[in-house]
Specification:
Helix content is 38%, strand content 19%. With 321 residues, the protein is an alpha/beta fold. It folds into 2 domains: 223 residues, Aldehyde Dehydrogenase, Chain A, domain 1 (3-Layer(aba) Sandwich); 69 residues, no CATH class. The two termini are 35 Å apart. The structure holds nicotinamide-adenine-dinucleotide (NAD). Nicotinamide-adenine-dinucleotide binds next to helix 7, strand 6, helix 8 and strand 7.
């Protein structure tokens, strides 16, 4: 991002206007986009059209609201100095996404990075590329300056590896398998950004516990069929839930508040749902413990930390202010 470029010079609030416009265009073309996603990735059309696309538009609008609220602090240091911090964009962000939620992952990686004033190069999964390319087209129509939102399709070993090992990419955010996440960590460590901590989420397995009683009766199975294991008490389920290298999310169903509070505090997972499963919001951070996490959280205010650098400015003053 060049100093003096249209993107660098743009008012922060205008970035919000562009992100909102992108959400409006997505809604305008929702039928086309969801059809494309369904044909390309094999995802079922109705959940995409009825739920996922709304969540995706909400992500652009949520981060649009942050653009002019990313602020530093004034810090009272000793002596005749004026000290303040600026939260500056990190620069070029390489965003590598998996095949299972292409439209949602695109928004999750693009909206916060762009809200903070970065530029992005998105590498969609080779199995599901078309919705990302279409979002790139809508970004141009929304009015993002050329070079701000870039989509580079290709295979992982070539396009993905080139992006994650490029020295001019300042930040990599990745969601996908543990093996590829480890390869990306290795690639980042070899280049000059030794201190960079990539953001991302890796493969995760989530647990799901039911307390509250066995229901009697005959039930028809629609499938898929879930394997179910019995447990005796809280000690056993906490031990089982934590006996994994992953820790993305977990859930418990119970009518007892003590059971719910004990479980939520003891389980090592990035999100714990109580009496529900999977509600997500652009405002609520999402990420995992242990091997799921590379660094930081996606979504919510916490996510902005990953896409900004903090600069401290100390200015000598003639009098003590
Ligand atoms: P994957 O790791 O095979 O691929 C993900 C992306 O990485 C693709 O774009 C791929 O082209 C790219 N890639 C592959 N090799 C690369 C390399 N050497 N360098 C750079 N990029 C490379 O994963 P996938 O099969 O597309 O997605 C499924 C995986 O994602 C599962 O393991 C799933 O658990 C995980 N996932 C995790 C979360 C989470 O929240 N933790 C969410 C969605 C998916």
């Amino acid at each position: 991002m060049e100093f003096g470029s249209p993107w660098q010079q743009m008012d922060a609030s205008k970035r919000g206007v562009l992100l909102r416009k992108l959400a409006d265009l997505l809604e305008r073309d929702k039928l086309y986009l969801c059809s494309l996603e369904s044909l390309d990735s094999g995802k079922v059309f109705m959940p995409l059209y009825a739920f996922e696309s709304g969540f995706v538009a909400d992500m652009y609008r949520y981060f649009a609201g942050w653009t002019d609220k990313i602020q530093g602090r004034t810090i009272p240091i000793e002596g005749a100095y004026f000290c303040y911090t600026r939260h500056e964009p990190v620069g070029v962000c390489g965003q590598i996404i998996p095949w299972n939620f292409p439209m949602a992952m695109f928004a999750m990686k693009v909206a916060p990075a762009v809200a903070c004033g970065n530029t992005v190069v998105v590498k969609p999964a080779e199995q599901a590329t078309l919705s990302s390319l279409y979002m790139g087209k809508l970004a141009i129509e929304a009015g993002f300056p050329p070079g701000v939102i870039n989509v580079v399709p290709g295979f992982g070993q070539t396009a993905g590896a080139a992006l994650s090992s490029h020295p001019n990419v300042n930040k990599v955010s990745f969601t996908g398998s543990t093996q590829v996440g480890q390869a990306i960590m290795g690639a980042r460590a070899k280049i000059k950004f030794k201190n960079e901590k990539p953001l991302g989420r890796l493969g995760g397995k989530s647990h799901f516990f039911f307390f509250g009683k066995r229901r009697k009766g005959n039930f028809q199975i629609f499938g898929p069929v879930q394997s179910i294991m019995k447990f005796k008490d809280m000690e056993e389920i906490v031990a089982r839930a934590n006996d994994t290298k992953y820790g993305l999310a977990g859930a418990i169903f119970t009518e007892d508040i003590d059971t719910a509070m004990t479980f939520t505090s003891r389980v090592k997972a990035g999100t714990v749902w109580v009496n529900c499963y999977l509600p997500m919001s652009p405002a609520a951070p999402f990420g995992g413990f242990k091997m799921v996490l590379l660094l930081g959280r996606e979504l919510g205010e916490y996510c902005l930390q990953a896409y900004t650098e903090i600069k401290t400015v100390v200015m000598k003053t003639s009098v003590k202010l």
